[in-house]
Model the fold of this input.
Amino acid sequence: MSVYDQKPWLAQYSPGVPPDIQPEFPDALSMFRRALERDPQRALLHYFDASLTTGEVDRLSDALAAGLAARGIGRGDRIAVYLQNVPQFVIAMLATWKLGGIMVSVNPMLRHKEVALILNDSGARVLITLESLYQDVAKDIAADTRVEHVLTTSELEFLGDTRPAMLQDVRRIACADATDLMTLIAGYADQRPAAQSLADDDIALLTYTSGTTGPPKAAMNLHRNVVYNTQVYREWMKLDSNDVILGVAPLFHITGLIACITTAMLLPCPLVLYYRFDPAVTAELVEKHGVTFVVASITVFIALMNNEEARKRDFSTLTKVYSGGAPVSPAQVEAFQNMFGAYIHNIYGMTETTSPTHAVPLGGSAPVDPNTGALSVGVPVCGALVRICDDDGNDLPAGEIGELISGGPMVVPGYWEKPEETAKAFDTRGIRTGDVGFMDAEGWFYIVDRKKDLIIASGYKVWPREVEDVLYTHPAVRECAVVGVVDAYRGETVKAYVSLRPGTETTGADIVDFCKDRMAAYKRPREVEIVADLPKTASGKIMRRELRK
Done:
């Protein structure tokens, strides 16, 4: 069996899934058009207790596109969307594509300097944002960018008769020098822009990396990238129109864009949105809407396990559960399955790969590597070609640790207006991921850690992920992160930051003792600091760089 050609053994792990997928649509907008043709009255979005049909979403996005076209916005223009998980996000994305434009997704957690960087880098002419974000951030920076039109909206739009508890304190805000999104839509009701012909190599999205190794860069996700990996989700997770997707992943993130929005369009099936994550609300909506499919960071599942109200809810419909974006330990998977009855399947991908390149096949269980204790992230999905390489770019055999290089039709061509950065990260084989791992003899892949997070303690290599997996077996540990700190004797030594489960007590010294019989002396944390919470990105990744500071 070839180490790098996954096709002979793909069917063994996921029967019925083709090794490659033929794109069914020339562009991402066509997926929505097909859903509209099939049933315009079908609910596409649930927002708390209210719903929007495919036909309503079509009319709203038509009107928004017509209104922007009247302001001179058209093909190739960038439209920045700076919103939480609200229906307006989906409407804005469709309106952008109907204009032949490029949507720029902006993390709603970013503040002044960070948002200004993205707006200037992308050259966005339009900014669509929440009133609260305009008041707190955008009004002070739009004038210093190339943004010509600011549209504001509220999380209170599209609600049913009852205002949810998490929005009880939200009030409408008058935004000077901005146009109200819903007023613009009302002014162009029943109008649509001139038809645009989209090509598969047109840019659909500019999605910014988290900037862990420098300033964020915009991956150019082409329409063909979006279509391909949306179909991968359908085939790999065995999704169809009977499914219901939980929109818990941030919509600005590549997972939210593909696993949630475009997958709901493709099937088509309802997408459940609820502004932003709250464990009790999440569990309530899973039960209410009969959610079947979710992709979320492991921190979401940890929060559900530690929430008393969530534990009371019925999760019996939730059978297609995936986690990506942050390491998952075997102990966490077991705990969630024992509590809610659902197995968490690992998934792995990047912004630059338009979501997944690897996943555990639905119904399968990921093996645990006996040497490192790492849980496999799965096998390459349809069409993904993945190599493990040494520092010189040479292929390594099964079992050897090296950097993952991911190729395939889901990989973007590069970064927006950054040829030098593109040349550093991409070559004819794909993208150098910066993640270190290996493939076993059966074809399962394991991520050991980020290349830059390696700790050298007394000359020994220590991968933080391996230490964290042991820490997660401690009954009091809710979340943890391991970093290297300067040590006069060892050069570097291992330090762990830990947050505790509600109702538990322990000390750093107790956790150090817990580790003594469970790992080699050079890997053991010499210091454990108990903290209330660990710093995270909006997609749920724990930010080790903040802890190292």
